Amino acid sequence: MRYQQEKSMKSADFFKKFLSPYLWLNLLAMAAVVVLLCLGVKYGIDLYTHHGEKIEVPNVKHKSFKDAEFLLKDRGLVVVVSDTGYVKTLPPDCVLEQSPDAGSVVKSGRVVYLIINSDSSPKLTIPDIVDNSSAREARAKLIAMGFKVLEPEYVPGEKDWVYGIKCRGRNVVKGDRVSVEDPLILQVGDGKRDLMDSVTYTDPIFEPELDEVDEFEEVVEPEPTHPATPTTPTEPVKTPEEKKTEPTEPVKNE
Fold it and tell me: Counting Cβ atoms within 10 Å, is residue 184 exposed (0-12), middle (13-18) or buried (19+)?
């Protein structure tokens, strides 16, 4: 009997707590929080990514940096100077290049990178090419770096070998900084040796090896002799011994 009473009391307490307004208020609060999080994520992402927003990038090339900055910022874009260049025919501080290009459709807050014209020509460092490379290699390397290379100047020396670099009438060496507007002249060997150079030519000496034995003897053919034509009889030639044994004629006293 007591067990049944305790069981009925527990069931009544359960239904009492289930129908409690505090429980339903907590459940409603949790549901409201979930709904608000979903709505916040949805609209927050749209606001962050500027969903549906379209801004056309204006053309600011060859405009002054001040005017270009005003046009871009007026459309909600961010301006960043990424590099400088040099064009002699354009005024300093004008825009040479822009990225993204003019006409591109972007969203507000997009960064537009600009390249500005410098007020002076940039200077480059002379590489190590003197007495270290051929004329073709040196010319290709200098042009790739941005230098202007004129026709070479030939000097006495090894053919097509670089012996020096001239700029504005003076010699420049490795490490010198030269403006890209100043043309360079390579001093190249003409293949003719200087008259002051002395060269001694000697014939090579070949020593026969011990293992090499000449197995053939050179045979020299005797030169043909022509028979002498008979002339006056000649006395036979006597040897000194025959001359000693020969009797001498007595000397006659008159």
Answer: buried
Q: How many Å apart are CA 160 and CA 187, to the nearest integer?
A: 9
Residues with Cβ within 8 Å of residue 24, at least 6 apart in sequence: none
DSSP state of 51: T
In whole angstroms, give the CA distance from residue 10 to residue 15. 9
Residues in the chain, total: 254
Check: CB of residue 186 under 8 Å from CB of residue 165. yes
User: How many beta carbons lie within 10 A of that of residue 152, not counting itself?
Assistant: 19
**Rounded average pLDDT over 209-229:** 52
Query: Highest mean pLDDT: which of 43-47, 174-178, 226-230?
Result: 174-178
Unique residue bearing structure tokens 């030169």: 223
| Residue 242 C-alpha from the chain's centroid | 99
3-state secondary structure of 124: strand
DSSP string covering 52-88 = T--EEPP--TTSBHHHHHHHHHHTT-EEEEEEEE--T
Tell whether the torsion through CA atoms of 204, 208, 212 and 213 is positive or negative: positive
Secondary structure of residue 194 in the 3-state scheme: coil
Q: Whole-prediction pTM value?
A: 0.44
User: 83 pairs with which residues across the strands?
Assistant: 115
52-67 tens-digit pLDDT: 678 899 999 999 999 9
Determine the Cα–Cα distance for residues 198 and 220; give it in Å rounded to an integer. 43
